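Sequence only, no structure available. Ideas?
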Amino acid sequence: MSGPIDALLTLLDLEPLEVNIYRGRNRDVGTGRVFGGQVFAQALVAARRTVEGAREAHSVHGYFILPGDLAAPIVYFVDRLRDGNSFTTRRVTAIQHGQAIFNLSASFHVSEPGLEHQDEMPKGVTPPEELAPELQLIREMADRIPESLRPVLTQDRPLDFRPVAPSDPFHPDVRAPERFVWFRAVAPLPDDPIIHQAVLAYASDHGLLPTALGPHGLSFRSTGLQMASLDHSVWMHRPFRADDWLLYAMDSPAAAGARGFVRGAVYRRNGELVASVAQEGLTRMRTPKA
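Reply:
I predicted one. Tokens follow.
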């Protein structure tokens, strides 16, 4: 197993403090605050730790309340709302410095057969073997990254993201509000389903909100732009492995009121739709002071 994967698994291996209470570490991804995908994934793991038997998450919804402090651990409090015959419901509150920074609701379901249909996987998408890793692209433009951020943004990653149509964050162009990105863990993961669900949850917040910036010729590095995830939801439809290639198809049907709305669909290479994602985020343009 690789060093970055070991670090990610350590991040997801929460420390139990008391019954229903866990503590998680942080990893700096260069945003200056705790990465939203990290707290979302850790809260999901905390919820799953309190679920008995073979029940996996099918519906997970989170609200980002305050920016997370990278210098402080996060404590997760789990409320056991319901243990039913088929479904288990949990609520998780993430705390730093005595304040809630995030809350999550998750539902877990026993595996059972039922009706099936799905949207088709997008056709004609370039396969991952023909695409450059995002990390390689970032390292090639390292001289344009602020020196203080360069070591963090160019560090080895636990996940290999491969954008189909990369954009230059320093010189963004106007494009349609859609993105296609392949991703997978850089090394094999343990078989435990919650690891794969948590890794997908972690990855699902990577590059999602910037999809709403395409029609406006902006990037997350554009001057005067304030961006932040406000909420995030993931629905898990079918089993999958996060160490196999997954296609993340994203689009943004609307932006208004300084908020952008984005959706995502995650497919296995065989065309199976394994997860759906939705998020609203702050996309505020600050007016320069006179």
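Residues 80 and 90 are 5 Å apart (CA to CA).
Hope that gets you unstuck.
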